Amino acid sequence: MDALLDRTYRIVRYILDNIFGNIAAFGLLAGTLFAIFEVIRRYKFGVVYQWGQDAVIYIIIGSVFVYFAVTQAKRAHLVMSAFTDLLRGRGYVKTVIFFRLCVSAFSLFFFSFFAYWGLPAVERTMATGRTSQSMFLLLWPFQAALLIAFALMALVTLFHLYQDVRALFGKNVFEWAPAEIHTDI
Q1: pLDDT tens across 44-65, in order?
Q2: Domain of 131, in residue numbers
Q3: What global pTM score does this model have?
Q4: How many CB atoms lie within 10 A of CB 128?
Q5: Number of folded domains that form the chain
Q6: Which has the closest alpha carbon to 69: 158, 3, 181?
């Protein structure tokens, strides 16, 4: 069972890191280059695309949404670890693992809840044809990107939860994917 899950998680991580990560990087680069292009057009020629500002905002936001799942998979999200580091330093390793398990369980619930209830919102936005303020860009693709990101985060968190449960019982799985990232100061 562990070998099958390990292989599956490796495939998921490969897709996240190499496909979704590159899509997000390309989106950030494209949004930034288009913003620079618009600044040059504005100050050199005195003209801009009416939809240019909306495009930059939504492309960058969509790229950040897509990168959420990559960050979650690496467990590189924003963490306040002073309390858990203190517990670990005093020898309460199982307590730290239990807290991490609780956070993974809550995260799975939250991400799944968001993905489940986000689907009707995307469908409604698509059906009504809602657009950005410039009335040029449809909003549903950006909502769909957020929805996909949360669904992928739920999938990744399922693997994290499994990793945390196994760690609580003294078994390390996914040794190639660290359960925690520490920063030494």
Answers
A1: 999 999 999 999 999 999 999 8
A2: 2-168
A3: 0.84
A4: 10
A5: 1
A6: 158
